[in-house]
Fold this sequence. Notes:
The chain is built from 5 helices and 5 strands; from the N terminus they run H-H-H-H-E-E-E-E-H-E. By secondary structure, the protein is an alpha+beta fold. The two termini are about 30 Å apart.
Amino acid sequence: MKSSMRIDLAVGQARAAELVKCYRDRLVEQDLIPPEGALRLACQTYADGYVYVTAAPGQFWERAEKEGTGTDLLLVLSLDQAWQGRTALCEFADGEHDELLLEELRYGYTLHSWPPGEGGEGDEPAWPRADGCPG
Length: 135
């Protein structure tokens, strides 16, 4: 099952637009994509909730299909390139920790919130950038 993710619902429209702009700028600078094409790609990437670009430390994700009566939220603590692929170290509400493949995060969870000052406001711990854009 593919979960849907609306980044604007988690960070607000202004911050979502800023994230798209930053990603567009990165595509122009690093991949030499013309600005118009880079903007289309950046918009599509965030509209599709492409987890390899959108996942960041500090985000809360909610299980797409509820299990039991407890909370189904997890907090992304960090991102890593592990031997089995890109992963997220997560803390669940019960204090348990687990490392999830980003594909597991993509299909099993939806972005719930991205608190200010936790990557959503420019202090992206995983890929720091001087311009405040996520890496």
